[in-house]
Amino acid sequence: MFKKILKSYDYSLILVVVLLSIFGLVMIYSSSMVTAIQRYGYESDHFYDRQKIFLIVGAVLFLFFSAFPYKIMLSNRFLIPIVIFSFTLLIFIFPFGHSAGNAQSWYKIGPLSLQPSEFVKVSAIVYLSAVYAKKQSYINQFNHGVLPPLAFIIIVCFLIALQPDFGTAALIVAISGVIILSSGMNLKNIGKLVMLGAIPSIPLLILFKDKIFSSVRVGRFEAFFNPFAEEIAQKEGYHMVNSFLALGAGGIKGLGLGQSVQKLGYLPEPHTDFIMAVISEELGIFGVAFVLFSLGFIVLKGIYIGLKGKDAFGSLLAIGISGMVGIQSFVNLAGVSGVIPLTGVPLPFISYGGSSILQLSIAMGILVNVSMFVNYEKKFKETNDKKVETIPTNNRFEGFQIKK
């Protein structure tokens, strides 16, 4: 049985995750060398060493969750602690959290910083997937089947918005939307949810208008519409202009690993938000294609696993996790390339960030575990279908092998 389980793991998915993580580690070193020295006064390999530690811890988490039977998480004994843990992390951020980037969104643990809202993304996926999987028999009863699970999402998004971190709150809403659309509820109930979401948005916009429409965020929109305007290019549009220069400088082959010019103090966060710009400049279209293909493979593989699964909980988990990777990738890449305003969302597996890589390791471990169960059940069914049983008959000349 143990050999069958090992054979059922999706090693192509594991390989892509490992390759992306190693590639990201190399690019973090390349993109952060100058920033570490000039801006922070650190050693050139400071961010590389820290990311390496997070990747080692992430590998342990990945192995644990890839072997941990995901169906156990369907139990209330698992779900209730997840809810309590998520609320506790977000509530205690206000008296004990660390402020950075105009938001109190981090816990400072010695030299390391952890962002609890990153882990809440995984909690939201597990919680919504479990609750909607349990409600499949009455998923279209709006008051009983649709609304109750959303209380968790509303509370965590409100707490995250108070930090204020509207980008992460919006991401959790979008990820939740993917799970809701895949849960099996009808379009009428989905329409009701959209209306219910639109109604409280007006008072929230009025209440948080100073934070939502801060000078920084308004500047990002101005830079989005016209980054090369004379009065914007040296201020709000400075990031976008240098990102465009980096994206265009690489061409097909790139300038070579470590040869980026824009990382020499022009791009403000070359190892986090703008790491794809550095990849494009140094490795050209081949480096960009590798990242896009790998991320696309993970997203499509997750959707495939979700569609093939016979278990509603596993299917929603797979689609929710792949949706998270896809949404974050789109937001980061679209922001760097000027398709949408900048949001500060890290590129999965590539950007520097301990919290991001740890939550992705947990999410990928869960996805690999779901995939293993799907493959195992499929092989077990195929084996049973091929089995034959001997059934005696009165006619000794007749064949007696009959398939089940």
UniProtKB/TrEMBL annotation:
Transmembrane segment boundaries: 12-33, 53-71, 78-96, 116-133, 145-162, 168-185, 190-208, 274-300, 312-336, 356-376
EC number: 2.4.99.28
One Pfam family here: FTSW_RODA_SPOVE
Keywords per UniProt: Cell shape, Glycosyltransferase, Membrane, Peptidoglycan synthesis, Transferase, Transmembrane, Transmembrane helix
Enzymatic reactions: [GlcNAc-(1->4)-Mur2Ac(oyl-L-Ala-gamma-D-Glu-L-Lys-D-Ala-D-Ala)](n)-di-trans,octa-cis-undecaprenyl diphosphate + beta-D-GlcNAc-(1->4)-Mur2Ac(oyl-L-Ala-gamma-D-Glu-L-Lys-D-Ala-D-Ala)-di-trans,octa-cis-undecaprenyl diphosphate = [GlcNAc-(1->4)-Mur2Ac(oyl-L-Ala-gamma-D-Glu-L-Lys-D-Ala-D-Ala)](n+1)-di-trans,octa-cis-undecaprenyl diphosphate + di-trans,octa-cis-undecaprenyl diphosphate + H(+)
First-level EC class: transferase
Entry's localization field: Membrane
Membrane topology: Multi-pass membrane protein
Main location: membrane
Keyword Nucleotide-binding: no
Homology family: Belongs to the SEDS family. FtsW subfamily.
Role summary: Peptidoglycan polymerase that is essential for cell division.
Protein name: Probable peptidoglycan glycosyltransferase FtsW
